[in-house]
Design brief:
Number of strands: 13
Structural class: alpha/beta
Strand order of the largest sheet: 1-9-8-7-4-2-3
Distance between the termini: 49 Å
CATH superfamily of the largest domain: Type I PLP-dependent aspartate aminotransferase-like (Major domain)
Oligomer: single chain
Number of helices: 13
Order of helices and strands: HEHEHEHEEEHEHEEHHHHEEHEEHH
Strand content: 5-15%
Shape: globular
Length: 365
């Protein structure tokens, strides 16, 4: 029998220990609940727990996930104002402050940290300070950012922080987690519309697991996914989180530098400060179809982590997914070489620029 099919049951103590390690990764003393599904599960659970008829939400849209959150908030009966910015930039704390001044009744703010789909990242520390000063609750989607850039949940004052294992952590898509702070629990507990007896119920987890001392799991855990998540945490600990973050920063810097040498490609997010370390998106000119270029690059090297943009961006944007185990110099250089082959150009300048950027970024404290 395969060793993966002949495992002893995952104990409640081990499940709780993995939760504690996720809390350490998120720099939080809040309750962490590991959910047995892709990160959309805790994201929807957080929104449906906190939002209700009569609540007023500011939904920050810097990519496709912000659009999804707005739909859920409206489904809950909340009054929603969308603060949308172009997908090739980031939202600023000043823009958030202005939106909150325009709607002083706002009591909930939803924000994506890094948008892997569009390659941007938002300045959470500054935005969170504005939201906390206003008195609103902040939900942060850190699925793409965790282990690629700092996620300082308590220091920033994030009330609900959701992560997944499948990007920079280098793990499975079928397990995710949410850190729920005291203000969030107060809000969810007081919400008569919060899900109960439901897979979307954070209150069920709180009552049956967290408040009960984490001694008996409320249902059979997804054992293989939990063990994979534990292995990811082992790997991050072995490398050291600062080194893990530096590796992702270097991968982004090297990809962007190399792409700038691969005319007519250009970074989709022009300003380096707005660019996510988890993935780099590249813009193609109108005469060059991004999906066709991606397909040609993958024919040259099927192993590189390339994909075209989603939906309407498929023709004009492609994405380099340099996260987790793919955040390496070899992966970045191979991807640039494949793109150069697809473009019919010499890769030497791009490879040199990428190598220099990698070394300069890693050398920075």
């Amino acid at each position: 029998m395969s060793p993966f099919l002949d495992l002893p049951p995952l104990s409640a103590a081990r499940f709780a220990a993995i939760e504690d390690r996720v809390a350490a990764l998120l720099h939080t003393s809040a309750d962490v609940i590991i959910t047995q599904g892709e990160a959309l599960l805790p994201l929807e659970a957080a929104i449906r727990g906190a939002a209700h008829p009569g609540s007023t939400a500011l939904n920050i849209v810097t990519g496709p996930y912000g659009q999804t959150f707005g739909g859920w908030l409206r489904d809950c009966g909340a009054e929603v104002a969308d603060l949308a910015v172009p997908y090739d930039t980031a939202v600023s704390a000043g823009q958030v402050a202005e939106a909150l001044r325009d709607r002083p009744e706002t009591d909930f703010v939803s924000l994506v940290h890094a948008e892997a789909a569009t390659g941007n990242t938002n300045p959470v520390a500054e935005i969170a300070a504005v939201v906390r000063a206003h008195g609103a609750l902040l939900m942060l989607d850190a699925v793409a950012s965790v282990a690629a850039e700092p996620v300082l949940t308590d220091e920033w004052g994030v009330d609900l922080c959701v992560i997944g294992g499948q990007k920079a952590m280098g793990g499975p898509a079928g397990v995710s987690a949410v850190a729920v702070g005291p203000r969030a629990w107060q809000r969810i507990t007081a919400n008569p519309a919060a899900p109960r007896r439901s897979y979307l119920s954070l209150l069920d987890w709180k009552e049956r697991w967290t408040d009960a001392g984490r001694t008996a799991l409320p249902h059979a855990p997804a054992q293989l996914e939990m063990l994979a998540l534990e292995a990811c945490l082992d790997r991050i600990d072995a490398e050291g989180l600062p080194a893990n973050l530096a590796r992702h920063r270097a991968a982004a810097a090297a990809t962007r530098a190399g792409a700038r040498a691969l005319a007519p490609l250009a970074p989709y997010v022009p300003r380096d400060r707005d660019a996510a370390p988890v993935a780099t998106t590249l813009r193609t000119p109108p005469a060059l179809n991004a999906a066709e270029l991606t397909a040609a690059a993958l024919r040259a090297d099927p192993t590189v982590p390339l994909q075209p943009g989603g939906g309407p961006l498929a023709a004009t944007m492609l994405r380099v997914n340099h996260y987790g185990p793919a955040a390496t110099p070899d992966t970045v250089l191979a991807t640039l070489a494949a793109l150069a082959t697809a473009l019919g150009t010499d890769p030497a300048a791009a490879l040199d620029a990428a190598g220099e950027a990698w070394e300069a970024t890693v050398a920075r404290p």
